[in-house]
Amino acid sequence: MKDALPKIASSCPLLSDVPVDEMLRVREQLNAANKDTGAKISVNDFVIKAAALALKKSGLPPCPVQDGQAI
Predict the structure, then answer these.
(1) Rounded CA gap, 41 and 23, in Å?
(2) Cα 56 to Cα 24: distance, rounded to the nearest angstrom
(3) What DSSP assignment string belongs to 7-52?
(4) Burial class (CB in 10 A: 0-12, 13-18, 19+), 6
């Protein structure tokens, strides 16, 4: 089934070491500031936002495309 994978998948690293100390500090500050609303920001919220920004910046489609159509 390797042929079914987009070609970019074979060239992208799946694991990375990323320092998150600053992100965790900001998360704590935001959660403390919003304590009265009950809203909490999770680490996943930051991961999803980072992934969305990376996709937007890269210009790559989020799915395989062939002949201008998503496959």
Answers:
(1) 11
(2) 24
(3) GGGGGS-S------HHHHHHHHHHHHHTTTTT----HHHHHHHHHH
(4) middle
Judged by DSSP in three states, 58 sits in: helix
pLDDT of residue 30: 95
CA–CA–CA angle 60, 24, 36 (5° rounding): 110
- With 0-12 CB in 10 A as exposed, 13-18 as middle and 19+ as buried, what is 52? exposed
**Does 12 or 67 have the greater pLDDT score?**
67
R_g of the chain computed on alpha carbons:
17
DSSP reduced 3-state for 66: strand
Q: Using one digit for the tens of pLDDT, what is the confidence trace for 8-65?
A: 555 555 677 889 999 999 999 999 999 999 999 999 999 999 988 988 888 776 677 7
